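User: My instructor asked us to take a sequence, write out its structure as tokens, and then describe one feature of it. I'm not sure where to start. Here is the sequence I was given:
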Amino acid sequence: MGQNGKEWGVVGRKATRNSHGEQMSRTTNIEPTCYNSRFRHGVDQKRRVQIPAKWRPQKAGLELTLILWPREGIGSCVRVLPPSQMAKLMRSIDEMPNSDPKKVVLKRIIGSGSAQVTVDRAGRICLPDEMAHEAGLKDEAVLVGLLDRFEIWNPERYEEVQVADAALAPDAFRLME
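Assistant: Let's start with the prediction itself. The structure tokens for your sequence are:
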């Protein structure tokens, strides 16, 4: 708290007073509120891919977690989780019974096959070599918003995903009614 109570906090916001005593506020959110839309970007020789400006963390140095994510019959993509979603994933695995052998398998596969990256000053992340290879990411990538996270797809694989998703969409939207 500032001198004479001139600073006070509200969840998600910090309010301060300017030199004239007027209240000012700024958002302290460190993650985008929504990963939406779809973007097609190049992948350079160093395996760097541009992250859309509205998807970039507001806090410098914030680490995103990359996980090679399998899709049966189509191939893998790179799933990108902000810290809150990675923590949620870890909690959901930890909540599984220790007697379930899938728990250790998930921990091993996700733990050994994931990487933390930061967004550079140019707004790019660098994909680990093996992960990019397994996901089929070479010259181009499609970044697909999943609202609370996003995926990076090989363009041809993503076309297959769109076909599969279109077949399931009517049933999926019925869940929302």
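For the description part of your assignment, you could build on this observation: The helical segments are 83-94, 101-112, 129-134, 155-174. Try explaining in your own words what that tells you about the chain.
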